[in-house]
Structure formats: C-alpha cells, structure tokens
Amino acid sequence: MIGSSLWSFALVVGLLTLTPGLDTALILRTAALGRRRGAWGVVLGIQAGTLVWGALTSLGVTAVLTASHLAYEALRWAGAAYLVWMGARMLIGTFRGEAPGDQGEPEATAVLDSMTRGFRQGLTTNLLNPKVGAFYVAVLPQFIPAGAAPLAMGVLLASVHAALGLIWSTVLVAFARVLRERLRTTRARRLLDRITGTVIAGFGVRLALGD
C-alpha cells in the first residue's frame, strides 16, 4: 500500500517538477552565471522548503493556512513582494553597470557566501509561495494510506518530491554549464539577468493578482 502511494505520488510531483517555473529560472540563472555552488545552494534551499511544506501539511498547519483567508493573503502578499523585489533588484543591477549576479559585492565575498545565499534564496522563495502549501494540502492527504503515521508518511512523500527535484536540478545545472560558454560577455550576462529578473517579477505580479 505504501509502495503504491509512493509511486503514484512520484508520478504526480514528477510531472510538476518538469514543468518550467520559478525554480527552473532561479537555478538556470545562478548556474549559467558561473555560480555553481550558489546554484546548488538554491536547489538545496528549494528542496528544504519542500520538506518543510510536507511536514507542515502532515501536522495540519497548512490546512489552517488555507482555511484562514487572512493568513493566506498575508503569505501571498509577502511572497509577491519578495519576488518583485528580487526581480527588480536583478533588473536595476544591470542598468547600474554592476557585474551580473554580484549586486556590487566583492568577488571573494560572493564566492564564500554563494552557497549560503543561494540556500536562503531558494528556501525563502519556496516557503513564501502559498500555492505550494495549497498544493500539498490538496494532494498529500490523498496519498497517505489508512493506518500510516501521518507525519512520517508525509515527510516520506515530500522526500520523494525533493529527490525528484534534485535529479532534475542536476540536469538543469549541467545544461547551464553548456549555456555558460555563450555567456562569457558582460552584455550576454546582463541580458540573462534582465530576462530572469522580468520572469521572477512577473511571477510576483501573478501571485499578487491571485492568478
């Protein structure tokens, strides 16, 4: 019964993982700019967020979030503001002449802090997206067999989602390394940041509009 639930859930979240979205844009942009450690920080942060959502759903916390209009709206607006801020920061940096991806920080500092900063960015982006919580509330309980421990099974299912995310992220990072060869010029890197910044800010606007 548990094995069947795991396979069925893997199929659902596998299709979701392959769908291009905010996570894909963040990982590709970070890796393509040569921030491989930063890209893996983003990946690990996103998957850590997935595990947190799985645990919270199993404990019933996210059910309270989706049931409370005020709590959901507060998280939605916080997430929208964060994404718009992050996208705008990328866009503004390209017009100020800053090195893409550095935001004006010294190179040594950027290298040392890249993984930590990437992890924080990935985790924050994931946890401030109420749609992830709503998805888990709607889907996760359907795959928890009767008699199974909700928390343990919920975390196990979320771990399957995170594992699939790690596998797909490995492909994205490898692809970005090929793409990086075409992004050696500052002009090309600024173009990438402008595209990614627009995409991320667009996700924020869509979240604010409730789309």
Automatic annotation (TrEMBL):
Keywords on record: Cell membrane, Membrane, Transmembrane, Transmembrane helix
Cellular compartments annotated: Cell membrane
The keyword DNA-binding is assigned to this record: no
Membrane topology, from the record: Multi-pass membrane protein
Residues annotated as transmembrane: 6-28, 40-68, 158-179
Keyword Acetylation among UniProt keywords: no
Pfam families: LysE
Chief place of localization: membrane
PANTHER family: ARGININE EXPORTER PROTEIN ARGO, ARGININE EXPORTER PROTEIN ARGO-RELATED
Protein name: LysE family translocator
